[in-house]
């Protein structure tokens, strides 16, 4: 994610990355389930 590089390094950034990863995984799972 290029957006992560703009954020300062810290707990907030880690939480953001985890949230984005979880959302992407959820979207991917939903996409597979709907096919």
CA-based gyration radius: 12 Å
Sheet having the most strands: none
| Shape descriptor | rod-shaped
Q: Can you count the helices?
A: 2
Q: Roughly how many Å apart are the termini?
A: 26 Å
What's the pLDDT, averaged over the residues?
81
The number of distinct β-strands equals 0
Helix content estimate: over 70%
Strand content: under 5%
Structural class: mainly alpha
Topology pattern, helix = H, strand = E: HH
* Residue windows where pLDDT falls under 50 for at least 5 positions: none
Key structural traits:
80% helix, single chain, mainly alpha, 35 residues
Characterization of this structure:
This protein is 80% helix and 0% strand. It is an all-alpha fold and 35 residues long. The longest helix has 24 residues, at 11-34.
What is the topological layout?
Elements: H1 3-6, H2 11-34
Brief synopsis:
The chain has helices spanning 3-6, 11-34.
């Amino acid at each position: 994610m290029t957006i992560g590089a703009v954020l300062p390094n810290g707990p907030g950034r880690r939480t953001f990355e985890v949230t984005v990863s979880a959302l992407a995984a959820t979207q991917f799972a939903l996409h597979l389930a709907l096919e």
